[in-house]
Amino acid sequence: MKPAKEIRVGNIIMVDAKPFIVLRSDVNGSSRTGFTYKWKMKNLLTNSPLENVFRGDDKFDVVVLDKKPVTYSYFADPLYVFMDADYEQYEIEEENLGEALNYLKDGMECEAVFYDGKAISVELPTTIARQVVYSEPAVKGNTSGNVLKEAKIENAIEAHRHTVQVPLFVSQDDVIEIDTRTNEYKRVVRN
């Protein structure tokens, strides 16, 4: 049993004896008054959505799922198709991918997560390298302190083109390393 404060987006928890995947987590409160967690979840068996609010000390059973290395292949509206080393294909719905959509790229290696033999989501590597496809040029004189700007990164689907906050010296066509858990810029990758 894990307390609500340790549950992360993508975890599978049991609510009323049914498995739910946590799709989104919003935290409210303070350390003095206590935190509450508003979760957007989806039932893995029926695909029905659920939103609920829990206290930080509420406890949940976390379901450990099977994982298998896969490679992102293509988008077959509304499903994303992944393939394993044995050329077996797994289809995953868009809403189950969550933040992974921001980083997907053709041929990208990740891990498919299975529940009852069905692929339900993917886990990305902790860090990935992506090319900056658009970034405003640095403005001369705007360099005091730790100034950041937005940079759009490459991914498989234009509709999910994602932005990352980067230092001013990062320019278009640079390849940067990103932490997929926090969406934070790590460094410029030198070739």
Essential attributes:
191 residues, mainly beta, SH3 type barrels, OB fold (Dihydrolipoamide Acetyltransferase, E2P), 5-stranded antiparallel β-sheet, 16 strands
Could you explain how this protein is built, in words?
- This protein has 191 residues and is an all-beta fold.
- The chain folds into 3 domains: 2-63, SH3 type barrels (Roll), CATH 2.30.30.30; 66-123, OB fold (Dihydrolipoamide Acetyltransferase, E2P), CATH 2.40.50; 127-188, OB fold (Dihydrolipoamide Acetyltransferase, E2P) (Beta Barrel), CATH 2.40.50.
- It is 2% helix and 55% strand.
- The chain contains 1 helix and 16 strands.
- It has one helix spanning 94-97, and strands at 2-3, 12-15, 18-30, 34-43, 49-55, 59-62, 66-76, 79-83, 89-93, 109-115, 118-123, 127-135, 148-153, 162-167, 175-179, 184-188.
- The strands form 3 sheets. A 6-stranded antiparallel β-sheet has the order 1-6-2-3-4-5, with no helix packed on it.
- It is flat, with a radius of gyration of 19 Å.
- Keywords: Cytoplasm, Elongation factor, Protein biosynthesis.
- Its main location: cytoplasm.
- GO terms for molecular function: translation elongation factor activity.
